[in-house]
Amino acid sequence: MTDAISRMTPWHQIVVEDPENLSGPSTKAFLAPLMRKANTAWVYSRGLDGAYFGLRGFEGQMLPASEFLAKASQAVQYDWAFFYLFESVPNLNLDEMDNEFIIEIADATARLIDDQYFCVYSRNENIKDFLLLVHPEAEHKRCAFAELNIPY
Q: Among candidates 127, 143, 140, which has minimal Cα distance to 7?
């Protein structure tokens, strides 16, 4: 669903500040319940930057959710990262796709921003409701795809 209709479907952007500066353990603590709610079976990561070890060498590979979480927790700190969450493996070569395309086809995307913020993009109302319940301090924006703030 990466056509004009997809881009017009309402999107949710949820931003949560991380008081632990995107450490590996805090990243796992944020992502694990989100991934359960999203029925995530696979995670594709891209654009990793920071003092991370477990995911080194696995960027651009589809990892099973449990393996991803174990590796993601092995970081001192993430500066930046894209984590694309999928219920099933897409039948596409994601290495050839840009970030916006992958955000559109993922069930949810977690963007780690500047040592400080988790930003989740999804069309799924249940994911939005869950994150706002668990993180009432979160900033929420409902908008068209073109109006999402996706820092690079």
A: 143
